Fold:
Amino acid sequence: MPLLVMKFGGTSVADLGRIRNAAEKVKREVERGYDVIVIVSAMSGKTNELVAWVEQTSPLYDAREYDAVVSSGENVTAGLMALTLQEMDVPARSWQGWQVPINTTSAHASARFVSIPRDNIEAKFREGFRVAVVAGFQGLSPEGRITPLGRGGSDTTAVAFAAAFGAERCDIYTDVDGVYTTDPRIAKKARKLDRIAFEEMLELASLGAKVLQTRSVELAMRYKVRLRVLSSFEDSDENSGTLVCDEEDIMESKVVSGVAHSRDEAKMTLLKVADRPGIAAAIFGPLADAGVNVDMIIQNISEAGFTDMTFSCPTNQVKRAEKAIADARAAGAFAFGELVVDDDVAKVSVVGIGMRSHAGVAATMFRALARENINIKVITTSEIKISVLIDRKYMELAVQALHDAFELDKAA
Ligand code: ADP
Ligand code: ASP
Ligand code: MG
Structure:
């Protein structure tokens, strides 16, 4: 029988009524003749609540126990979804990650898939079950511990199942009806895209567009999964939502196709570090060892043998970064004058495959920000994106200004 993967995010399973609404969509696909693997998130807000409980109980928590608590919200929705389907006369069974088992690496809070054996679920389909409901976000480490896949990880669970089972399509049901030119909650003029290229979606996701977890896009690209984003609150057909696909399958070609933002960024500057070979390794080695995700890095021009080193990381990693730097300094790894922390910044980025062959995007971007009197603190570029750090209070304004400057409300 043909198989579909359908993933429902937190707002789509936020209460029993919404679970029923999602189950009705699943039932419709079963009636069309599909076997379905349903991936569910925790009810919206649940995972945040669990994270807060862990942090209140133990600020420097044991990673294994964090993982055990934070991944548990999905167990509830998986069971409730299976029960709801059974009440609708759809034969369904739920699975927690370890029961499949979803084998992953053992990295804390950001494990990666190793394998998903099909036997257990296929055996149930052969018995006549039509739906396997799988708790998203959860993996099983080689040591037998639960391993969450990072925030937003149920998207990645869904794509991994679609790849492992050769699903016809992987449908990601969420609270917006597709991928937009920018977050529709910030820019009213945001325009829904019928299609977006994997590369662009990958950049948008990694630059903060929450709609898909970055890793899910990577996996879909590698395993050629037909990946679609659509609304769980509207009726849908084959043409609904946004299809994430190869660049060749897209007619529309704009130089810039989207604007992304990431709210919780911090900028840290080490003033007066010695400008010598090995200094960057001495600074960023201990930060990496401490699990700090360093994003942008700039080293200033040096003067009299000294330089300043600036980097950015997520706001909630500032404490960890400060400690890693203080410990490394105490151990004599490097010396510096002062550490200046600005944890009130946001990152705004423009993305587009067309940038590969078009000049002038940076100038248009900087002009648009200048018109709004927004000061740029850090700039980084890559082949298909330009990112800037700015004061957080200007983030929405910057997103709207850039959306206007590149006329993203108009189709190509
Ligand atoms: P779910 O709980 O279903 O996984 P998420 O909250 O993780 O949903 O992702 C959906 C949200 O992503 C939307 O509500 C929207 O605010 C946000 N978002 C950010 N950028 C975009 C974009 N370019 N297109 C669509 N949604 C976006
Ligand atoms: N519940 C997890 C989170 O909030 C995973 C997910 O929803 O994708 O990050
Ligand atoms: Mg999500």
